[in-house]
Structures are given as structure tokens and as C-alpha cells.
Amino acid sequence: MVIFNLRVNMSEYQNSIDNRENIINVIKISTDDISVYIHREQTTVTVPLDKLVEIAKNLKTNDTTKFDMCVDTTAIDWLDKKEKRYEVVYFLYSLTLNHRVRIKVEIDEDKNECPTLSNIWESANWYERETYDMYGIKFTDHPDMRRYYMPEDFNDPETGEPLHPLRKDFPLMGIPDSLPLPAYPEKYGEVN
Length: 192
Known about the structure:
The chain has helices spanning 2-27, 52-61, 124-135, 185-188, and strands spanning 35-39, 42-46, 69-77, 86-94, 99-107, 113-115, 138-140. The chain is elongated and about 60 Å long. The model has no long low-confidence stretch (mean pLDDT 88). By secondary structure, it is an alpha/beta fold. The strands form 2 sheets. A 5-stranded mixed beta sheet has the order 1-2-5-4-3. It has one domain (32-169): 2-Layer Sandwich (Beta Polymerase, domain 2).
């Protein structure tokens, strides 16, 4: 019984290696300028920003990858920790082949733009809007680039600049006096 389970696990392991090689080969059709990171059998590939749309199309249409679903899109704010402040991350899944990959692109703080993938995967529309709302990264050629959670006028009261709550420089306690805070009996005593 143990030997059978070991064979199944080794087979799954070999499939994941084959899938990873297929994914990397499809990406290399567009560029060799990639960085591959594998952690706990999960593959993340960092690709150049100018090749993102071409790579995404290839990953969706190639018979060896068939990534037919964009599961999520998010960003990472590296404030003062990396040369480029942001990374946009696309989580892709193939229903047909049952494998996943994360595609990352680095974004300059000054330009702060990423091409949209909503014309490749419709679900990216909502995820990119959410990423824009929370991080302020604009997705060029997006069909409906507006806020997702926050009101359209969610701006700094002093400067008028739009605020994005998941940025590392956003105040931890929020904008003073913008929302009433809940009772804090540990600090102020019992509330009557």
C-alpha cells in the first residue's frame, strides 16, 4: 500500500516538473529575460512588462499550457526595499491540465502603469480594478478603470491626491476623522 502511494506521488511530482518546463518553454517563445522562483512546488515567473500581453496570450492559447482562467490579480508594494516599488501578480490556472502559475511584472513608481489582461481573461477586469483601487496601479486600455471598493472621491483631505489603502505609506490608523472608530475600552475605559 505504501509503495502504491509513493508511485502516485512520484507521478504527480513528475507531472508538475513537466508542466513547469512546458510553462517556461511557452514563456521563452516571447523572451529569455525571465526569473523563475519555485517554492513548495508553486511556480512564479517574473517577466518583462513590455512582453506581458504577448506572454499571457501564449499561455492561454498554447496546447501545452492552456491557461484558461485568471484566478486573481494583485500587487505587492516594496516601498524602499526594491528598485521598482510595485509588482503586479497574475494567478493563472488551467482547468484542462490542472496546473497553476504566477506571472509577475515589476512596475516603476513614477510610471505606475501595467497593460490590462482583461481582453485575454474577462475575470481580470474585476481583479485589475481592485488592484487599482487598493494600490493605485493603472491598467492601460482597461475597459472600465475606476475604483472597486472605495468611493471615487477617496482623496487626501489636505492634498487632494487619491488614496490607496494597501500602499505601505498609507496611515495605519487611516485618515484622521474620516470614519468614526469603534470603542476602545482597553485604552479609554468602559463605554457607557
